[in-house]
User: What shape does this take?
Amino acid sequence: MKITAIVMAGGKGTRMRSLGEKPLVKVGRMEMFRRVVSALEGSRQIDEVVIASSLHTPNTTREAENLGLQVIITPGVGYVEDLRYALNRLGVEHALVINSDLPFINVSIIDKVCDRYERSRKPALTVTTKIAKIRELGFEPTYGQQGLSPVGINMMRGPLIGDDEMDQEIFVIEDALPLINVDTPEDVLRAERLLKIFEAKISN
Assistant: This one.
């Protein structure tokens, strides 16, 4: 099964504007979108990585192109609309769609998500984690229900995007840290602190 990863990096990012374009905000010494790309490129499941940017994120477009990444400039009118545009342009059969604001995402999680999607045999999969786990790390989910929060990672059959009746699997991952979304300058500070703790544990 060939899987194309689409990194959504074209939103307005209004809550992060004081720090510049959201995908280029650094956690540690690396921009968030580059951390996401690194995890995707390390996965045994991902065949190609595409950056979906827009006129809202011209510097992200330039940086991605400088790195030799494939870029699609979407209309920048909304998440679903931009995703549909990217999928139609790419003509992919299976897509992993991921937000650019997941600085702790890792190869292991990407592989687990792809494996679960393939085993489920459903046309779509949404990755969630427990709201309580997110709050334990000092973050507040943007939305959620029944104790679960979507984290901005989805898999789907490309031709079915926008189908309201699309059957989907809900994949709950217990470890919330790799799934933390960084949405605000305050979140960046929290993520920096977590990164320092994580790096200190590795060095010891």
